[in-house]
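Reopening: Regulator of G-protein signaling 5 still failing for me.
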Amino acid sequence: MCKGLAALPHSCLERAKEIKIKLGILLQKPDSAVDLVIPYNEKPEKPAKTQKPPLDEALQWRDSLDKILQNNYGLASFKSFLKSEFSEENLEFWLACEDYRKIKSPAKMAEKAKKIYEEFIQTEAPKEVNIDHFTKDITMKNLVEPSPSSFDVAQKRIYSLMEKDSLPRFLRSEFYKELIK
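Support: Ran it again with your exact input. Result attached.
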């Protein structure tokens, strides 16, 4: 073992230099600040290239969130609106749960459940949704043995949040006003 600088065998000195070089490389700053810039599009994304719904259909979106979520153009418009507010994680979680429910294979279901949990549910998740501890605990217990209904309680809470908070803001937004002109 290497002890004291004077007593360092040749191989220990070489190893120390290698480690120093490797650490130096890891600690280097990027060549330019451009490497650190996250692109930001000032204009919100346009809804997907689906056909604009007739006025009477778009007006029905005021009746329920379900009507928006069942319409491709409505869903795309709602998603664009939420992205413009940096709050699309609730819709993304809700959609991930809808996809999850359709999985038949237990192995794929367990894999997808883990991914949803890590992306949306766990504390400090990249797209953590705002659910209470009770709902989080129920969801975690349901994930011990994943089933199509594992996320039902959390999904209902998020749906309710979107219905009470996001939907009214969307209906007052320019996104929706432009659509019903």
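The chain is about 60% helix and 0% strand. If you still see a failure, please send the error message rather than a screenshot.
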